[in-house]
Design a protein that fits this description.
alpha/beta; 38% helix; four-stranded parallel beta sheet; 207 residues; two-stranded antiparallel ribbon
Amino acid sequence: MELYKGETLSITVTGHSLGAALALLVADDISTCAADVPPVAAFSFGGPRVGNRGFADRINSNNVRVLRIVNSQDVITRVPGTFVSDELDQKLRTSKVGGMLDMLDRNMPLAYSHVGEELRVDTKMSPYLKPDADMACCHDLEAYLHLVDGFMASDCPFRANAKRSLVRLLQDQKSNVKKLYTSKAKTLRLNLETQRLPLSSCLPSPS
C-alpha cells in the first residue's frame, strides 16, 4: 500500500475450490491488517463453507465484498455442513420451521455458514455440456468459467454469443461435452491446422 500511496486502491482475491477457501481467509486477514486498508473483495469459484456465522458476520462488518460463484450440481459448495442449497435454507428460515433453525444456530455456534452474495450457474443450462456431467466436471474451473461466460440471468437461457473458447473444456472434460460439439470442434481444429494458424485459446465456440 505504501508503494501506491496517493492512488485509489482496491484489493481483489480470487480462488477455486480449496483456493476459494484460502482466498476468503486471505481477504479477511487483509481487511484487518491495518487501519487504512483499501476496499477488499473476494471472488470464490466452487468454494466450500469456510467458517461459522460469527466469521461471516465479521467478514461483513469489515466490509469485505464476497461473490461466490456456485454451480448447482457442484457438491463441494455444500460442504462441510448439511447438503441443502442456500436457496432452500432461506426458504426454510422463512417457513414455520425457521425458528427451530435459528435455535439450532444459537446452540451450534460452530456450524459452518456461507459468506457473501451468490451467483448461481447450472451445468444443465449449457448447450455444450451433457446434463448428466460427472462430479469432476461440475467442479472443474474451466467448466465454471464456461458457465459464467454464458450466464445472463437465472431464468434466462445460455448466452448465444458467449465468447470463451471451448479448447480447454474439451481437453479437460471431453467425456462430458456433447458429441455433436466435440465433432464440430475437431473440424474447426483441422481447418485451423490446414491454414497453419496457431492453435491456442482462439478456437471459437462451435455453433
